[in-house]
Design brief:
Radius of gyration: 28 Å
Shape: globular
Largest sheet: 11 strands, mixed
Strand content: 15-25%
Distance between the termini: 57 Å
Bound molecules: zinc ion, fe (iii) ion
Number of strands: 30
Length: 759
């Protein structure tokens, strides 16, 4: 007989709240081993004893057979003391001062729970909070680690006898499931009208579905916050929601009960179907069918629509029988999504006719994530529920850095060892409530991840709220990182690149090292520093931020740039639509350089061309004009499209500067000869791709660098992303673009962290 040995194992990674202890228990019991397993603040500890070979077998299986949501990053083993115990148990958790840095994100309801939900004989039949160790809420309900019920929002619900038995049954799927619940003992839903009068009904969810069908707007409390729901096929209802929410154009996401329903109005590739059905359940941007069943008001002027499938049991019940419900974030203006029932009534009673709420508190707010399949890969556009706070593994170990992100689409990042933990999407920092959410998220993540930062990274912009935040901190080193360096570094982090790269930062606005507004940049970037190798020529940006909301200002700026004050003699449809006084005033601003910073932003060039082509003069959401310009161009660019001319000038210090005058003049010629907006847009896209490919080739020749990194908000444009990727590969570059982290400002914090951590 083999000698008896004992071993102590320390397991690190995502091993709490994912059914890991039950798995260990099953494995040990099946092998006839004795010992114990328990959670600590750092991970899971196992003491196991038995015959040597069996213990070895156990250790091997621990890694290879672990449950689907578990992710072991480190497993260390030391010899233990033989106690001679007769069974294997799950022990009490031990909290440590230093918490484990791994928390599972929230995951969609699993198939087994779903079949119980639909089984009339099951005691959880139609119970909207059904879950098990393989699925359900995590990040949004965890207050602190270890992941045990008393430290979650489930602490107020005392288990009934039946649930307690399941919780203790090692053979079951709910063995130590911390958020276990049933209709007897768990959270309940309730339906109210906008004045908070209770609507009593035997089945409030079915009643809500009927109210939606009848065209009402319902605020629905979900997993990470409230949604505003409305029938997506009902024009009037969608119109009313837009009017009340004061959101005229920005696309609204919809939820369909299943893939078959979504297929009725959207074109879905196998890869997109896979994303839709993944446990993260993001919103996936899909091409609308034409004609489209959905109300045009869901995503006006847009060829795509954001679609998600249900991810909580409540959503499954709510969408039964529907084709699609609008499920847009329950907030007003730039405020963060509402998570608290009282506050939701206060904020949304002017928007929603009814409220479907429940009594499980939401600890961490978390919006829906958004993914767009472009150039053969799923690309994260907004990283939140299902993904946060899962870390990204970095190439090298890092000091502890807090990176506070940018101003719009803000997210934050904390690093520890070789991991970067990105927060969920926080939002627009100019909004006071969002700023509070930001502060809360920083302190919560620092707390649960056990990270007290040694360095703080922020944007170079002196007036960003995030920059101001760092000024009030003492005792830590703060490091300013240029916006586009951060964009490129974020992509380098994602691909674990360390040697110098050519970084194409194609973006909206970012504060430049010379104080100008950058955004059409070719950088030679390392993790620690960068040099500006090429950029679009500067043009005035009359009115600063006002020019972002009003593309006609950029249209005028480019006209002035290309034709001087002689632009007034041009017979242009664009000019005739504008207010004469506004034109005069803006021209004065430009010629006298009053409140008119200079910009090299590609995003602004998109705006300017959209305005000159007569497509859009004013926007109601970020990037609207550029998105519409992309939409009119169609799915694919043909190879034989003539491009617009442009010049490249080399300055004394070796920087290449793009002269946009010929481009603008040619656009105007096209406009005046009645060339269609579609064709102008196609030629413009082709030109942008050619131009940056040219610059990359030139800089590549000078530096011998063959790695090209694509980042910045403009890379959300599918035509630009695929055109540039293809063009650069053809020129012999290895091309890297974003997939897991957004190319937009939602990814900035990761780049800031890498730069500050590498210095
Ligand atoms: Zn489940
Ligand atoms: Zn129960
Ligand atoms: Fe940016």
């Amino acid at each position: 007989m083999a000698p008896t040995i004992a071993k102590c194992l320390s397991v690190r990674g995502t091993v709490q709240g994912v059914g890991f202890r039950p798995f260990v228990f099953h494995l040990a019991t099946a092998l006839g081993l004795t010992g114990t397993v328990f959670n600590t603040g750092e991970g899971v500890e196992i003491h196991v004893e038995g015959p040597r070979e069996t213990v070895d077998h156990f250790c091997r299986n621990l890694k290879t057979k672990s449950p689907p949501l578990a992710c072991i990053t480190n497993l260390s083993t030391v010899p233990g003391v033989i106690t001679g115990r007769s069974d294997f148990t799950i022990g009490a958790s031990i909290g440590h001062a230093e918490a484990s840095p791994f928390i599972s994100p929230d995951v969609g309801v699993c198939d087994e729970c779903l079949s119980e939900l639909r089984d009339p004989r099951n005691r959880r039949y139609r119970y909207p909070f059904i879950n098990c160790t393989h699925c359900g809420p995590r990040y949004t309900i965890i207050e602190t680690l270890p992941y045990d019920r008393p430290f979650t929002m489930m602490k107020v619900f005392d288990l009934c006898d039946a649930c307690r038995a399941e919780y203790r049954d090692p053979a079951g799927r709910r063995f130590h499931a911390q958020s276990i619940a049933c209709p007897e003992c768990g959270p309940q839903v309730a339906l109210y009208d906008a004045r908070r009068r209770s609507i009593s009904d035997r089945d409030p969810i079915r009643k809500t579905a009927a109210l939606l069908k009848a065209g009402h707007i319902v605020a629905v409390k979900g997993l990470g916050g409230f949604h505003l729901a409305v029938d997506a096929l009902n024009d009037q209802a969608v119109g009313r929601l837009r009017e009340r929410k004061q959101r005229p154009d920005k696309p609204l996401a919809v939820m369909s009960p299943d893939l078959a329903a979504a297929t009725r109005f959207a074109v879905i590739s196998p890869a997109e179907a896979k994303s839709l059905q993944s446990i993260e359940r993001p919103i996936v941007l899909l091409k609308k069918k034409s004609p489209c069943l959905l109300s045009e008001g869901v995503a006006p002027g847009n060829k795509c629509v954001g679609v998600m499938l249900p991810y909580t049991p409540l959503h499954y019940l709510l969408t039964e029988g529907a084709t699609a419900l609008v499920m847009t974030s329950g907030n007003i203006g730039g405020s963060p999504v509402e998570r608290d029932t009282d506050q939701a009534f206060a904020a949304l009673s002017g928007v929603a006719d009814y409220f479907l709420v429940h009594d499980r508190m939401i600890f961490q707010r978390c919006d829906d994530s958004l993914v767009h399949h472009m150039a053969g890969k799923p690309r994260s556009v907004r990283r939140a529920r299902g993904f946060a706070p899962s870390p990204l593994r970095l190439k090298n170990a890092m000091p502890r850095v807090l990176a506070v992100g940018g101003e719009l689409k803000n997210t934050i990042c904390l690093t520890r060892d070789r991991y970067a933990f990105l927060s969920q999407h926080i939002g627009d920092m100019t909004e006071a409530n969002t700023y509070r959410f930001f502060e809360e998220t920083v302190s919560h993540m620092k707390h649960v991840l056990g990270i007290s930062p040694e360095r703080i990274a922020h944007d170079l912009h002196p007036d960003f709220e995030t920059t101001r935040y760092t000024r009030n901190l003492s005792g830590v080193e703060t490091i300013a990182v240029q916006h586009h360096h951060a964009h490129v570094a974020a992509c380098m982090a994602e691909h674990r690149l360390t040697s110098p790269v050519i970084g194409l930062a194609l973006d909206g606005n970012g504060y430049g090292a010379d104080g100008a507004v950058w955004g059409g940049e070719v950088l030679i970037a390392e993790t620690t520093r960068f040099r500006r190798a090429a950029h679009l020529g500067y043009v005035p940006m009359p009115g600063g931020d006002a020019a972002v909301r009003e593309p006609w200002r950029m249209g005028l700026a480019y006209l002035y740039h290309a034709f001087g004050s002689g632009f007034r003699n041009l017979d242009l449809a664009f000019l005739s639509t504008l207010d004469v006084e506004a034109v005069g005033l803006t021209e004065k601003m430009i010629s006298r350089r009053v409140n008119t910073p200079l910009t090299s932003s590609l995003g602004r060039l998109f705006d300017g061309v959209a305005a000159l082509a007569g497509l859009r003069q004013r926007t109601t959401y970020e990037g609207q004009a550029a998105m519409e310009l992309e939409a009119v161009a169609g799915k694919r660019l043909s190879a034989n499209l003539a491009r617009y001319p442009y010049g490249i000038v080399r300055s004394e210090n070796g920087t290449h500067c793009v002269d946009l005058k010929p481009l603008i003049q040619a656009v105007i010629t096209d406009v005046n000869s009645g060339v269609s907006v579609r064709k102008i847009s196609r030629r413009f896209h082709t030109t942008v791709i050619a131009l940056f490919t040219d610059l990359c080739v030139t800089v590549g020749r000078e530096t011998r660098i063959r790695d090209a990194v694509l980042s910045g908000g403009v890379l959300q444009n599918a035509l630009i992303l695929s055109g540039l990727s293809r063009g650069l590969v053809k020129k012999g570059f290895r091309v890297y673009s974003h997939s897991r982290v957004p190319a937009n400002d939602g990814g900035l914090c990761l780049g800031q962290a890498l730069v500050a951590g590498s210095r």
